[in-house]
Amino acid sequence: MSARQPRFNQGALIDTTPLPDDIPKVDEIGASSAPLLSAAYFIGARCRAFNDDYMQCKTEANGRGEFECMKEGRKVTRCAASVLSDINKHCLEEFRRHWVCLDNNNHQLWECRPQERKLNKCVFESLVLTLLQRLTKEIPETPAGETPVHLRKRQLFSNTGY
């Protein structure tokens, strides 16, 4: 037996050091994983350029760009917050039904396809990226001529029958 007694730290560690003035201030999104997963495709569509800039900065910094890439990271956060704000403004009920379903079904997307279809319809009709371009939902590397998984009438592993 060991003579050393176990010690547990029950306090929260908070770094109170302020960020440098050249890093823009931004409020955190404050959403759990379910709303973020529900809105992920729309965040990806609208914030693609900011995400690409951030990832390029991280790549050029060889994965060590915490402070160097903070500006790009804050732009990504601001963009994601604006998407969530727009979805809440125009499609709140559909959005809430979808993310609550995800939360209740262990984030299994296939369990919530009916709610997802209603959310997609609302977002595609309501939110506009620019004057000429609407939000789209495209899954990378979907084979040509095959129905994307989110548009299939019947899900393979679903017990909902849709």
Characterise this structure.
The protein is mainly alpha-helical. It is 46% helix and 0% strand. It is globular and about 60 Å long. The model has no long low-confidence stretch (mean pLDDT 81).
What's the short story on this structure?
Helices cover 46% and strands 0% of the residues. It is an all-alpha fold.
Specify the structural class.
Answer: mainly alpha
Spans of at least 5 consecutive residues with low confidence: none
SSE ordering = HHHHHH
Portion in beta strands = under 5%
Number of helices: 6
Amino-to-carboxy terminus distance: 58 Å
Determine Rg (CA atoms, Å): 20 Å
Proportion of helical residues: 40-55%
How would you classify the quaternary structure? single chain
Q: How many E-type strands? A: 0
What average pLDDT do the residues reach?
81
Shape: globular
Major sheet description = none
What tags apply to this protein structure?
mainly alpha, 0% strand, 162 residues, globular
List the helices and strands and how they pair.
Elements: H1 33-38, H2 40-46, H3 48-60, H4 70-90, H5 92-104, H6 113-126
Helix pairs in contact: 2-4, 3-4, 5-6
